Amino acid sequence: MSFFETSGLAVGYNGKTLIRDIDLALERGGILTLIGPNGSGKSTILKTIARQLAAIRGVVAVEGRDIAAMSAKELARRQAVVLTDRIRPELATAREIVSLGRYPYTNAVGRMTPEDRRIVARSLELVNAADLAQRDYMTLSDGQKQRVILARALAQQPDLLVLDEPTAYLDVKHKAELLSLLRELAENEGLTVIMSLHEIDLAAKASDLLLCVKGETAAAFGPPEQVLRECPAEALFGLEKGSYNAALGSIELEKPVGEPQVFVIGGAGAGIPVYRRLQRGRVPFAAGILFENDVDAYVAGSLASKLILSPAFEPVTEELFTEARGVMLACGSVIDAGAPRGTLNEANARLALLAAERGILNE
Amino acid sequence: MEKRGSGFGSGRFWAVTGLLFAALLSALVINLAVGTVRLSLSEIAALIKNGADASTQSMILFNVRMPRMLLAAILGGALAVSGFLLQSFFRNPIAGPFVLGISSGAKMIVGLTMIFLSGVVALDPAALVAAAFLGSLLITALVLLFSQKVQNMELLLVVGIMVGYICSAVTDAAIAFASEQDIVNLKYWSMGTFSGKGWDQVVTAAAVCLPAVLLSWLLSKPMGAYALGEGYAKSMGVAVKPFRLALILLSSLLSACVTALAGPVSFVGIAVPHITRRLLKSSRPALVIPAAFLAGAVFCVFSDLIARTVFAPTELNIGTVTSVFGAPVVIWMMIDRRRRGA
User: Fold this and answer.
1) pLDDT tens digit sequence for B154-186
2) Could B228 and A108 be called an inter-chain contact, meaning their C-beta atoms sit closer than 8 Å?
């Protein structure tokens, strides 16, 4: 039995099933992330897990206990949420917001004991927001607000934390900080995390398990590498005007179509800015000669209309050089990205020399 | 580090309530003393010490000024708390029984009762409170129905104001069928005043409002959680549906009591909680409810003093005075909120 499990879970609104057959299992201290396009039902699944929405069929269990059978107080002591709703409390300090998290522990009128205050202070420390305690919540930045909201959830001392799009309003720095924080909490505090993310690259990096949500059943569930293989991002998001590179975790825009007009001699990352410039100018291009393991090869694979690829850790063969020469001469225009030359890729030096002789080398 | 207190332990709450209490006491004493017949402090002290007798001064003190002043204090406090409950319910500080049309609804049902049932049932204060409660609930239900359709608070206020006009129109139309005597009673009542009230009304007001305010205070804890939104409230263990129902029932009961006993009194429900929050520098219901009750009492006792003394012997409606002081506070509050981007 895993710490968190769902079996035969079907979720939806007003008795109408949106997604069915959701079978999940997550160990204590694990991070499970739901990925999928907008409107795919990620929030619906999270709301059902948090019991904000009743399951249509099936069971959600924490430590083997069906959450439907828990009292409101028991559930609130085991589970806390971070929702997408932006809160607008008037005249409330960050500490007051976090103190609300003690709700399931305080007495009928909400009196805070010294122990409650200690836990509130510790929750603020865990999210590195101790210095914000006295600040008016509404004067905080989006990143600070999100940390305070997280501290409020931690003040509930939950075993399971459910977060719906916690990075939605954050810039890159704060996205990275928040996800690192969640990883720390999972490792150090044994907190189990279930969340949804928009950023598929961050999801793969921050999570132990991914659930790919698309269509009527959960499309794939498992470790990130496996899920991204079974459920490629292009298909998941219906990405037509671009492509997703799972190894780099990056999204490239649409590849320019047509016969290559420019040949780019790249390597060791020098080619990438050139490829991107040509892509923006919608100029179809060929890229070469690149080794399979070169970072340029990953990007050129998404953007170049022709790619001359050489096996890794081997010198470029004469046949491949001849092929590259043919493609280059057909292009009629060459850009040397200025990659370093070594013994294995001296073929590229010969290509550049040839282009210069023919007067087709651009500076 | 700057210490910004907001708990019971921090001095601010006690300083504010202490100040409000002192203001209320002085307002009460001034109210007893000032009027067409002036009573000095020593006269008041002597009268209270000797108990009621047949003298004119004793009549004025015990049968006119004292019940009137107590009524103004209790109902003013009730109105402020009623407004605060509605604001918590809608999570918007501009909500109040008057702007949402709830007071007008109460007025309508009380008016209809006075006209059509005056010969059928005894119109004692308790009956009027019951009628006003019915009217409040009716309009609240209507406003809630609309609030599910419109998420925009400004739009909801417009709906509330329109509903208020409809209720007033119905009340006016009903007056056409009223007897001369009913019209006089109704006109007098609907202008809104604390004058001519006796101990009957004070007892009814205290019996209804004080328990209702106490119950409201006991809802402080879920109210605080509910301020973060329904989803968060639920996740912390608030039983949202019964809680919302309790808020609406208490708020309606409080504003109905005011409307039944003193007629429509405007703006206290919005202006007083706002000022109170500002004074406390906190929105915590456990602090705001008792302080707003005191502040509402002070506000209405002073307003009533102004209503009966400024143009004496002519008396102003209580609503006239509360509007003059309350409406600018509401305007200031809305501009302030817009400026802070809330």
Assistant:
1) 777 788 888 888 888 888 888 777 777 777 777
2) no
What are the chain B neighbours of A101 within 8 Å (beta carbons)?
Answer: 236
| Ranges of each domain in chain A | 4-235, 255-362
Q: Is B234 on the interface with A (CB under 8 A)?
A: yes
Q: What is the pLDDT of residue B120?
A: 65
Interface test with B, best of A103, A116, A149, A162 (most B CBs within 10 A): A103
Q: Give the closest-approach CA distance of A213 to chain B in angstroms.
A: 23
Q: Is A110 on the interface with B (CB under 8 A)?
A: yes
Q: Which two tokens stand for residue A323?
A: 């092929």
Q: Kindly state whether A54 is in contact with chain B, defined as any CB-CB distance less than 8 angstroms.
A: no
What number is the ipTM of this complex? 0.82
What does the pLDDT look like over B283-310, one tens digit per residue? 899 999 999 999 999 999 999 889 888 8
| A81/B4 touch (CB, cutoff 8 Å), yes or no | no
A89: contact with B, CB 8 A cutoff:
yes
Collect all residues of chain A within an 8 Å Cβ-Cβ radius of residue B235: 50, 52, 76, 79-81, 83
- DSSP collapsed to 3 states, chain A: CCCEEEEEEEEEECCEEEEEEEEEEECCCCEEEEECCCCCCHHHHHHHHCCCCCCCEEEEEECCEEHHHCCHHHHHHHEEEECCCCCCCCCCEHHHHHHHHHCCCCCCCCCCCHHHHHHHHHHHHHCCCHHHCCCEHHHCCHHHHHHHHHHHHHHCCCCEEEEECCCCCCCHHHHHHHHHHHHHHHHHHCCEEEEECCCHHHHHHHCCEEEEECCCEEEEEECHHHHHHHCCHHHHHCCCCEEEECCCCEEEECCCCCCCCEEEECCCCCHHHHHHHHHHCCCCEEEEEEECCCHHHHHHHHHCCEEEEECCCCCCCHHHHHHHHHHHHHHCCEEECCCCCCCCCHHHHHHHHHHHHHCCEEC
* Model pLDDT, residue B153: 66
A contacts of B234 (beta carbons < 8 Å): 51-52
Across the A:B interface, residue pairs with CB atoms under 8 Å apart total: 87
* A4-235: CATH topology: Rossmann fold (3.40.50)
**pTM here?**
0.83
Q: Do the chains contact at B239 and A90, CB–CB below 8 Å?
A: no
Q: For position A118, what pLDDT does the model report?
A: 95
* A255-362 has the same fold as A4-235: yes
Q: Which has the closest alpha carbon to B109: B127, B83, B85?
A: B127
Q: Which residue of B has its CA nearest to A111?
A: B221
Q: Do A104 and B236 touch (CB under 8 A)?
A: yes
Query: Whose CA is closest to B71, among B190, B228, B182, B198?
Result: B198
Contact B75, B261 (CB under 8 A): yes
**Residue linked to tokens 């104001």:** B161
Could you say which of B91, B217, B236 has the minimum Cβ distance to residue A156? B236
The fold for domain A255-362 equals: Rossmann fold (3.40.50)
Q: What percent of chain A has pLDDT over 90?
A: 44
Q: Set out the domains of chain B in order of their start, with CATH numbers.
A: 12-339 (1.10.3470.10)
